[in-house]
Amino acid sequence: MGNQKNFNIIFSVIIGIVFLVCISFFVVSFILPIGDTSMDDNTIKNDYNPNGSNYSNDDNINNINNSAEITPENSDESRIAELEEKIRENEIKLKDPYLILVNKSNPMPEDYVMPQMVGLSLDSARKMEIMAASKLELFLAKAKEEGHNVIYVVSAYRDKSTQQTNYDAKISEYMGLGYSREDAEKRTLEFIAPPGFSEHQTALVADVAQEKELNSEKLAQTPFFIYANENIHKYGYIVRYQKGKELVTGYSAEPWHFRYVGIEAATYMHEKNLSLEEYIDHLNLNITAAEQELATLKKKN
């Protein structure tokens, strides 16, 4: 009987231990994961979170991506900055002294400061602004390499009194051909600017030819002027009075009339087939359009 009783006690203890082990296993395997998963996951993920915050690395990545997205407000701010820069750039271009506009509607400014001038190597009596002279001589040297010889600089800088003399002489010439004074002046204005309205007074212009006589229709078809029309922009020059632009420039075509404006502007005008008047209008329109859009955006914000 005693042995049987001891056996029953031992068996009960073993059963109890097995039961406790099973219960513990059940609790560890099923109950704790369900109740504590979020804490364990956050704890594990926070081990890799340098900020020690309570969101995962995936949340960090999502937040970084969201912060990089362009919101409407950020988009407007960026566009405003672009427009302000566009206005500034175009205003700077308009103030470029090489883009001074002198024509029948725009006389030489009274406060115009004459630039430093030098005589051209081809003809020291012909003077131009230093950069304009340098670039013209580079162009003419290249033209000579390409086989275009015997080039004359017929005219460069002219002061107001010289322009007056030329203007009066041309009127007299037409009157001698039977034109009335009024008709002679109208005819003269197609080719020669009155004093104070001539680009030659800027020292940025040269009349260039291969012969002393200047004839628009004849010269425009010669190899040198075809070459000049295609290449002179590379040296910062434009052919100022182009055929087909008479209503814009106010003058008949003059393929020999080279005007220095700088390489960037000359290249743009050449590529877009713009006269100087049209290019300046283009810059002003850029500013106006940018200012209008800028006002709309600022009003909205």
Question: Overall 3D geometry?
Answer: elongated
Strand portion, in percent? Answer: 5-15%
Contiguous uncertain segments of 5+ residues: 30-70
In CATH, the topology of the largest domain is named Muramoyl-pentapeptide Carboxypeptidase, domain 2
Largest sheet: 4 strands, antiparallel
* Strand arrangement, major sheet: 3-4-6-5
CATH architecture of the largest domain: 2-Layer Sandwich
Helix % is: 55-70%
Which whole number gives the mean pLDDT?
Answer: 81
Quaternary form = single chain
DSSP helix count?
A: 11
**CATH uppermost class of the largest domain:** Alpha Beta
**End-to-end gap:** 99 Å
Task: Give a brief description.
This protein has 301 residues and is α+β, with helices and mostly antiparallel strands.
Features:
301 residues, alpha+beta, Muramoyl-pentapeptide Carboxypeptidase, domain 2, 2 domains, four-stranded antiparallel β-sheet, two-stranded antiparallel sheet
Question: How is this structure best described in words?
Answer:
The chain is an alpha+beta fold and 301 residues long. The chain has helices at residues 2-46, 57-68, 72-94, 130-145, 160-176, 181-189, 216-220, 223-231, 246-249, 263-272, 276-300, and strands at 117-119, 127-129, 152-155, 205-209, 237-241, 254-260. The strands form 2 sheets. It has a 4-stranded antiparallel beta sheet with strand order 3-4-6-5. A two-stranded antiparallel sheet has the order 1-2. A hairpin with a 7-residue loop joins strand 1 and strand 2. Helix 3 runs antiparallel to helix 11 (276-300). The longest helix is centred in the N-terminal third of the chain and has 45 residues, at 2-46.
